[in-house]
Amino acid sequence: MQPRKHLLGLEGYSRDEILEILDHARTFRAVLERDIKKVPPLRGVTIANLFFEPSTRTRMSFELAEKRMSADVVNFSASTSSLKKGESLRDTVENILSMKIDMIVIRHSATGAPHYIARRCDSIVINAGDGSHEHPTQALLDLFTIREKFGEVEGLKVSLIGDILHSRVIRSNVLGLKALGAQVTLCAPATLLPVGVENWGVKISHDVEESVTGANVVNIMRLQLERQGSGYIPSLREYSRIWGIDTERVDLMSENRLIMHPGPMNRGVEITQDVADSEDSVILEQVTNGVAVRMAVLFLLSPLRREVEGD
Question: Which of 14, 59, 195, 227 is the most exposed place for a label (fewest CB within 10 A)?
């Protein structure tokens, strides 16, 4: 298949393209189990991690993936940059690119920021989360985790529950799950569903018990209070009572089941302590798989690979 230059989102990605990434991720997951975990595919490639929003898992995961593949890594922090002096996003990026950066990993609060950068530079751009739009590598690691557990995604019943409106993870997950043939349900209060969600081609529910009954996978979205104004929910206690996932609701799922959460978790709000730490939970496994998936994405988009293949 024709390789893509950037990973800006999963919109338009085919089943075969997604499976190619997941297959490579399986190879790199095996690398992470070795005593010596470093491999040379990105030796000589310089990667800039531009994180304009706080991040723990995604930033560390990308940086570890880059270093495991022998890349030269430059980390950018908005809090200590010239943005504090009034410099624009465009000027910041252009100055970074003038240092001959090969690949850019960017997280930004503005929807479309990675697309904006990709249109204005020759470097390879990977979206690490833009606003409430997409978070493609998180969806890919979720798909990888599901596939490794079940062997196949097609036909599985997957319920995505929580703050759908503000979640960039949701949009990428829906695109990826649909491409691989899963039966997808979105469950949330009406106030936390985006306009036009009925056109996404998935089932919409406001009933948690209905959504989890018979489900193979429940992926729980964090209540993103930092993105919300007022009036979305009556209170945290009320939200937890009506929408939170506890052991009683887990018992309604299929016997062959997974509990997932992209993190960070609000324990006691959208997920109870015992569910988060249960044997059905693969939350920490998602974090481990994230490194392998990001290694696969970096490898497939690498400028060195393009040179070898004559692209």
Answer: 195
